[in-house]
Amino acid sequence: MGCGTEPGKRNEMTETKEQLVAWLRDHTDAGNAPDTLEADCRNAVYLMDHAEISVTEANTFFIRITLGAAARTPIELRFAAFQDEAAKEGFGPGIRRRAYTGYYDFGHTATEWETVISLGVSGLRNRLSERLSLPGNDKKSIRFYTETLKVFDAAFSFMLRAADLFENEGKTEAAAGLRALTLRAPETLFEALQTVLVYYSLQQYFDGTILRTLGRPDRYLYPFYKKEDPEKAFSLLKAFMTEIDSIRADANMPIALGGSDVSGNDLFNDLSFALLKAYQESPNAHIKLHILWTKQTPDRILFEAFRGIRDGANSIVFMNDRRVIEAVEYVGASKEDATDYHVVGCYECGAAGEVTSSCTSRVNLPKVIEATLNDGCDMETGERIGLPVTGTFDTFEAFYEEFRKQLFYFVQCAARITDLRERHYAALHTAPVLSAVYRSSVEAGRDIYVDHAAKYNNSSLNAVGLATAVDSLAAIRKLVYEDRTLTVPDLAEILKNDWAGEETLRLTVKNRFPKFGNGDETVDRIAQRIVNDLAEAVDGRPNAKGGVYRLGLFSIDWRWRFGEFAAASADGRHKGEPLSQNTSAVFGMDREGATAHLRSVASLDTVKTPNGTIVDIDLHSSAVEGEAGLQALVGALKTYFELGGFAVHYNVLNTETLRDAKAHPEDYPNLQVRLCGWNVLFNTLSEKEKDEFIRRSEKG
């Protein structure tokens, strides 16, 4: 095995699990100066040689992989050494109380799919071999090319093993395709789709670097699609969707459609529509679409997408292509790289050439207010999570300035914790398969993580609970400074006691005070101010990898856990209840309808949120019936984007159906709802989550 062997042919004996684990443990001891790349490449080779493979009915293009006893080991042996650093620097209380957090993120990657398809797996290996043969390589690049070539040699052996299994199962087209792909790039639509699944498996399972998007297949597959018979092509796309769904990717498998080129031309084509239809007509509980809207996007795409959402194929995010490009440029990407952005995970965007670390730092916005009201301390435990408070807050402006000071401090803490994690990337994780695709990595002979070899090496900070914080500040302004019902100390004491003995006041605040998401400009201005302040604190802040931080406003399901540690808030929320979701209004508080809700969110300057943001719109099924309902949906979407909205997704809910599904789950095995950034089967939700969706449907 090595650079001198013919692809697919290896002359070394494979090692046992015991030998591998012993070697890994020895080379993970910091005293032995471990070579992380060699360890991960060796582990990837072992996994390819020992993974269990099978063929199911859903496997048209590639096999099913079960790692089983061949579980990955290196990261598990490495992380523990760095867990105590944040606590030693005094961040323990803030982390424990979910005021702010910082993490690693090796799990939100996008490969350069056009390169994967144009070169094929064999071309990726050949490119590495060619780079190794060039004069002038230093010791580090020689190591990179040599070790990564071992992984690709093992990959070819693995592909041939899969081909033999397909042959034994009578699936000769798949077998022939795999054998051909060890020698050349794909030539047909079948082989191109097969290459997508082969590459996905190599990175996802053996690289151990989670691949969170299939990119823009309506672009990189289009040359193959044009050459294929339309009926056969559609049949292949449906089989592809079925196989993708069968992988059961965590939080769904993203596929992006549309967008624009650097000249502003819309990129939707016949393949875009075919992929949308294939998604709708195939099993899709574990797939999600990102529709990248431009002003030239064909109406038939939007109508068909909304028709599917209304019928239950609703794991679709609409994104404003122009807004995304502007946001990615805002943190330093070139226009060309920003236009060629990718969307990973739920709605996070990165420039071409960027390794997107979209879930590193987090700040709990309602907890910032809690610290402002309680001298920088947690209301339940008394632990210090913020700065000591100065001033008496004689005006709302003075109160907000203290909030802003605490906000900047929380951002500083979250970023510092993340920096402590990310400075150890060289000892934590490498990505030989992913690195072999990225042009910047291959040309430099450096790993994408160990050496920060991406063109853009950015980090992220996501602010959680925006609407809860906005509504709380609006309530404080009214209660304390306009109506003078309470003083700041009075309110702080009430919240510490979780509104005990003050239920009338709580319900008045919750149900009668102005709230974000209703087009109220006085409330919306508070939201705008928070976002602008966050952007000042976050965007462009240097990180530990030679990149910068990017602001995001999505909360996904973190809002439940962060809410558990948050005291009662001034908007009428009880202690421990979930925080607001993403940039949406608090559930049930958007009382002026979807249009007002969208208008409030569109008032935010989302160019300053390059890590992504979204609004969740819940509609009762009766509100979108017939062609008139579709017209209304399309019209509202266009208006939202023309006002500057970033992204939106929809739940079309029926109260009676949800109640019956809760009572009789066996009758609704495939009922899906949009949880936050992905779809889930309704039956898999907790009872609390089911009840929340039922309440949301009643609001509609």
User: How many strand segments?
Assistant: 15
Quickly count the helices: 30
Strand arrangement, major sheet? 4-5-6-13-12
- How many structural domains can be distinguished in the coordinates? 3
Q: Which range best describes the helical content: under 10%, 10-25%, 25-40%, 40-55%, 55-70% or over 70%?
A: 40-55%
For the record, give the distance between the C-alpha atoms at the N and C termini, rounded to a whole number.
62 Å
| Low-confidence residue ranges | 1-8, 29-33
What global shape is seen? globular
Average the pLDDT over all residues and give the rounded result.
92
Give a brief rundown of this model:
The chain is an alpha/beta fold.
Keywords:
single chain, 700 residues, alpha/beta, 3 domains, five-stranded mixed β-sheet, four-stranded mixed β-sheet, 30 helices, 50% helix, globular, disordered N terminus
What would you note in describing this structure?
There is one protein chain. This protein is an alpha/beta fold and about 700 residues long. The chain has 3 domains: about 1-80 and about 120-205, no CATH class; about 85-105 and about 355-610, no CATH class; about 210-355 and about 615-650, no CATH class. The longest helix is centred in the first third of the chain and has 30 residues, at about 140-170. The chain starts with 16 loop residues before the first helix and ends with a helix. About 55% of the residues are buried. Residues about 1-10 and about 30-35 have low confidence and may be disordered.
